[in-house]
Design brief:
Helices cover about 40% and strands about 20% of the residues. It has helices spanning about 10-15, 25-40, 50-60, 70-95, 105-110, 125-130, 155-165, 200-205, 220-230, 245-255; strands at about 5-10, 45-50, 100-105, 110-115, 115-120, 135-140, 140-145, 150, 170-175, 195, 235-240, 260-264. Bound molecules: Isopentenyl phosphate.
């Protein structure tokens, strides 16, 4: 690909109400799709998380542990369906703002092996990017060559696609301002880290707070684990608070913004 794509992840905690099962945060979706439209960055890939759509159902059926018994089969279908419902809301909002968004369903194009992406059919996605479409993927239920099935996080998709397509930047929108020296929700002395290298990150790892609500793919720590390979690859990654107006817009434009820049 001649122009390097930008990969934007919108966290489930931003686009859904994580405390209320199957509840979207429609005002946030509306504002963020406006910001994406205004930023007009191309090529762009969007990946979103599961929030209160995917996670509670995935947990209820123990999907992260792989196939154990037939009662999980319906759970797989229901979890995937919940994700497609959320995805339809995102794609619809993007189209309303004149962005040619097209769903790319991970369950149909990815196979994992023990939870790690083993293969991903990328030809249609690459064609979409070449033609100016915005592919929209999401954390999803996927089939796994060892365990039967698994839950694939949007973060693993982000990192894998960013590496494969040699992305110019990854923007990760979450519900906190970035990485902190402690957990900002419980520790008032914690301060925002504006810039961090991979080496510095290693030292901080056991202090970064995990997610407090149901998150089968590991919250902020899981996020860092997944994003590291992309950073190692030389792709600049910025974490911003997507619940605050214009942070995603500024990060997409490459403007100075409150957040954490992670670099090799
Ligand atoms: O919120 C998980 O995606 P994430 C998706 O990006 C499901 O970790 C189905 C729980």
């Amino acid at each position: 690909m001649s122009v390097r794509p930008t990969v934007l992840k919108l966290g489930g905690s931003v686009i859904t109400d994580k405390e209320k099962k199957l509840t979207p945060n429609l005002p946030a979706i509306e504002r963020l799709t406006k910001e994406i439209s205004r930023a007009n960055v191309s090529p762009l890939i969007l990946v979103h998380g599961g929030g209160s759509f995917g996670h509670p159902v995935a947990e209820q059926y123990g999907l992260k542990e792989g196939y154990k018994d037939s009662s999980q089969i319906m759970g797989f279908s229901i979890t995937h369906q919940a994700m497609t419902k959320l995805n339809t809301l995102i794609v619809g909002a993007l189209i309303n703002h004149n962005i040619p968004a097209v769903e790319v369903q991970p369950s149909s194009c990815v196979i994992t092996k023990a939870g790690r992406i083993q293969s991903m059919e990328q030809k249609p996605l690459k064609k979409m990017l070449e033609m100016g479409f915005v592919p929209v993927l999401y954390g999803d239920t996927v089939f796994d060559s060892e365990t039967g099935f698994d839950i694939l996080s949007g973060d693993q998709i982000v990192s894998s696609l960013a590496i494969n397509l040699n992305a110019r930047r990854i923007v990760v929108g979450v519900d906190v301002n970035g990485l902190y020296t402690g957990d900002p929700k419980t520790d008032s002395g914690a301060h925002l880290i504006q810039h961090v290298t991979l080496g510095e990150l290693k030292k901080l790892e056991n202090r970064i707070g995990g997610s407090k609500v149901t998150d089968v793919t590991g919250g902020m720590l899981g996020k860092m684990f997944e994003l590291k390979p992309a950073v190692e690859h030389g792709i600049q990654t910025i974490i911003v608070n997507a619940t605050e107006t214009n942070r995603v817009y500024k990060a997409l434009k490459g403007e100075k913004v409150v957040g954490t820049v992670i670099e090799r």
